Amino acid sequence: MASVVDRLGTFDGVHRRNLSKLLALAHLEGPLSRARLTSETGLNRSTVAALATELVDLGLVEERAPDPTKRVGRPSPVVAVHPGVQVIAVNPEVDAVTVAAVGLNARIVVRERLEVDHLVTPDETAELVAGAIARWRRAELAGVRLIGVGLAVPGQVRHSDGLVRWAPHLEWTDAPVRALVEAATGLPTQVANDATLGARAEHLFGAGRGVDDLVYLNGGASGIGGGLVVEGRLVGGARGYAGEFGQNRPGISSAGDRRAPDGVLEDEVSRARLLEVVGRASADEPTLAGLLAASEDPAVADELARQQRILATALGNAINVLNPSLIVLGGFLATLAEWNPDALDAAVAAQALPVAAEGLEIRVAELGENRLLIGAAELAFADLLADPLAEQLVDPLVG
Amino acid sequence: MASVVDRLGTFDGVHRRNLSKLLALAHLEGPLSRARLTSETGLNRSTVAALATELVDLGLVEERAPDPTKRVGRPSPVVAVHPGVQVIAVNPEVDAVTVAAVGLNARIVVRERLEVDHLVTPDETAELVAGAIARWRRAELAGVRLIGVGLAVPGQVRHSDGLVRWAPHLEWTDAPVRALVEAATGLPTQVANDATLGARAEHLFGAGRGVDDLVYLNGGASGIGGGLVVEGRLVGGARGYAGEFGQNRPGISSAGDRRAPDGVLEDEVSRARLLEVVGRASADEPTLAGLLAASEDPAVADELARQQRILATALGNAINVLNPSLIVLGGFLATLAEWNPDALDAAVAAQALPVAAEGLEIRVAELGENRLLIGAAELAFADLLADPLAEQLVDPLVG
DNA sequence: GGGATTTGCCGTCAAGAGCAACAAATACCC
DNA sequence: GGGTATTTGTTGCTCTTGACGGCAAATCCC
Q1: Do A63 and A28 share a structural domain?
Q2: Do both B217 and B360 map to the same domain?
Q3: What is the pLDDT of residues B35-59, one digit of tens each?
Q4: Which of B42, B241, B248 sits opposite A355 (nearest CB)?
Q5: Longest dimension (CA), chain B
Q6: B95 to chain A nearest CA, in Å?
Q7: Nearest Cα to Cα of residue B226 among B324, B303, B112, B111
Q8: Chain C bases under 7 Å from protein CB?
Q9: What is the spatial distance between Cα B236 and Cα B219, in angstroms, rounded to a whole number?
Q10: What is the mean pLDDT of residues B124-139?
Q11: Does residue A329 share a domain with residue A240?
Q12: Domain count, chain B
């Protein structure tokens, strides 16, 4: 695969990079005028015009009549991504596989939650995805150009080949998910960890928009995962396993704060313990947040404060090492943070090196239940966005 | 011919990038043939020829007669960086300021340790540097082209303006070191944290050569600092404070392992505690290593094992989050690791997520006492290497 | 010494971004 | 409502600079 980077030295590489820049802008910022594209890219008017028409010819963007604006001067046509360019986003969970078609405009076109009454296997997942595509092809996706498939898997995924090394709750071990889905769908497929993709989504479209250095932590029923963005780039690490905050061991200064013998973050800061303290077997996130906020039981406040303290230490460690400008918390960690934001801020400030915490913001994730699908779609779009010309070689036709 | 094209094609700097690539190769790999440059860059023969002669004209590289090789075919001239292109590297410490001139070939040309009998101030540092340059100008540096100054400061340095926010041992607070040194020397100056620059040096020329994802930790007399390289790039974070591992709080599972009330890594894993356990007030690193290795006192082994355990947890946390392929340990952490590498490996493997630790290597830093100077020099060379043409606007005074 | 091989050198080509002049479309002022 | 200013698309041209190909040079091997 000839990546753009390989050819950066050539003019061809420049051209491709410019195409990529334009497409990415239209993708991330939504429809924008050609005039804004020129100022945003720093390229010449005529260059942008040529590039835009090239993208139109490639079927990747559309040019519309200018939006009515109140400004002087000739109105500039609006460039928007082509709505027919889409990917399939997949999120297998213990009780269901969610499949969606997502447009290049990051909008979800179709979304279906396919419930299963047993633990889904990798093969079943591939079949479910292929089945959904086949069904949608006859209606919602008629005439749509599918670029690829992206999967958000709750487990550790090897970046190089999309092998799911271990997904404890799905009970998948060394599952060749990428190959299976590619075989079943005929579409180029990418697989990654769900929390990492959540970080990607929040970075591009959520609470982390425009922030170049951030840490994202998500609290799920099964544990804590996350991702990091450094200099605007999502960090995968050597093999793609980066972001596993849940298995970290943060310092616990007071012995009374320790609950789990091993002191792993996700055993100490856990949704199950919150449910337990309010005496519920299960609850969705808003319900849990409501219960926690309404409770006057001191044990509830104690537990929340304890979890905040430990989370603060884990965050402090990350802040010292990465010096991010933003921390985004999702899932029950958002609930935990919002229960008493000031206390969390103070605890983090106390646990991190003062200069590293300067100007740091802690925010709650913005994207809702579609976060993982958006992230998975982004993964599937990545190649196209990086090099809009490369995709033309592949013929993405599926019955 | 081939005079510098001042009319910089407002083009996307393909040309500049290619010049940069060539110069960086010559800088990092040492002298290499033009033929190797072509294969390494993927550029055309004629293109490389043009670029190389341009770099020669810029006075940045030299072309020599071909090295005698035993291979068939016309021999290719050797391209080597110009020995007269140098920077000044500076490392202020509590009892001395080390100043050196470092060539673009990463060789140290002159090096002087300027002892001081009191805590050196930022102003004094600038004066000492300027004085050294003035002295050297008359001999070692006659005719040398100085590109800039790089400082490795043991403290937290704000990336944007080179302000030393806090250097506890030097007792500097908000010291405008960059401005002071620039004023005193007339040379463009860069400042960064010493451990971060150590990471840079080890990454480019030491134990981390060719590794794209690594974590570097250095144990000094005063604490533990470090740096991280992600996708081949040194991570600074939002403001440049990244890498402060020493202030992290790792989990300490056994209460008996805790020594410091606050549980900060550098209070638990500390050179002072090692010196104490062998009953010495001070010792240089080889001496300390010898004493530790020779001791049969069980208390020594206990302390070493304890520090290894805690270090392993801190490393495990970093591994889970960053999934590096290499960890480089310097200073007394190297001593600690080498005392029993297998035990450390095992402890790290036990503390990190198995997949994240797969294929992980733990190595000892390779560069010796010149590490910080090399790193500081690299910092000073960075702008030139990134864009060899930009530097031409500045006329660095000579003689 | 001849053939093979590799590489430098030079002239030519061409991709593609920049540029400038002109035209078009709007707002604003009178 | 018409003239002017302003912004931006369009078009044809220039120019930089990397690629290409033929030829010469320098080496090794037989």
Answers
A1: yes
A2: yes
A3: 999 998 888 889 999 999 999 999 9
A4: B241
A5: 74
A6: 25
A7: B324
A8: 3-11, 15-20, 23-28
A9: 19
A10: 96
A11: yes
A12: 3
